[in-house]
Amino acid sequence: MAGTIQSIERAAAVLRVVSAGPRGLTLLEVSAALGLAKGTTHGILRTLVDVGFLGQDATTGRYEVGDRLTALGGHALDASTVRSLTLNWADTLASRAGEQVHVGVLRGLEVEVVHHVFRPDDSEQDMRTGLRLPVHASAMGKVLLAFDPSAQAQVLSRHQELRTHRTVTEPGAITRHLEAVRRDGTATEVEELVLGQAAVAAPVRGRGGIVVAAVEVSGDVERLCDGRGQVRTRFVTQVRAVARTMSRDFAA
């Protein structure tokens, strides 16, 4: 059986991202959302404009859904599908890290925890599956926000809740954090959501490179962080590696 065609998958991902933007998206926003080079992204956008699937505002340069494609389905996956595709690798990550693991998807401006693996010890822990987390104050939220221009625009346009004294709420600071996420491929939060807790997350990508979920390691600051208050490199490396493996399963 012939394999999938990468260029078509990427074009489909571009259409989904642009269709989710309430006011259209720029070339840079689309490129950042999908992790594609600007030249590659521009070529796809121009082709989609030429065939009428997208339009470009002559004044702002923003790309919008064209007349020939007035509605597109969303890219959100069913929670049970995400859980089934990440189940084994989330268990593996928890075992390697020795900490609890969460898998989450974007639901509006919150992250829904669709899978939770307990820390592999005998300590008392609460099941968090179904819990909703704020995107601006959680590691998984930052990952999902960084690659969703529509959600990012909404977050930056309104006041965000201060969950602890370390929560980042200033729009300029949030923007810098998200730029770092796109650059590094991971997001961290240290006591921004809950005092004494830290987490590191990475994106899980589906076909065409679109981010469909996030996976994180979460635990006590004293275990996850070094003396400078930074998440230890080994956890960052472990999360990034498992996220890449999960992405291959989603794209298969």
Automatic annotation (TrEMBL):
Residues forming the HTH iclR-type domain are 5-67
**InterPro entries per UniProt:** GAF-like_dom_sf, HTH_MetabolicPath_Reg, Tscrpt_reg_IclR_C, Tscrpt_reg_IclR_N, WH-like_DNA-bd_sf, WH_DNA-bd_sf
Protein known as: IclR family transcriptional regulator
Lineage summary: Bacteria, Bacillati, Actinomycetota, Actinomycetes, Micrococcales
| Assigned keywords, A-Z | DNA-binding, Transcription, Transcription regulation
One Pfam family assigned to this protein is IclR_C
Origin superkingdom: Bacteria
Domain (IclR-ED): residue spans on this chain:
68-252
Q: Keyword Transcription regulation: yes or no?
A: yes
Question: What is the species listed in this Swiss-Prot or TrEMBL entry?
Answer: Aquipuribacter hungaricus
Q: Which residues form the signal peptide?
A: none
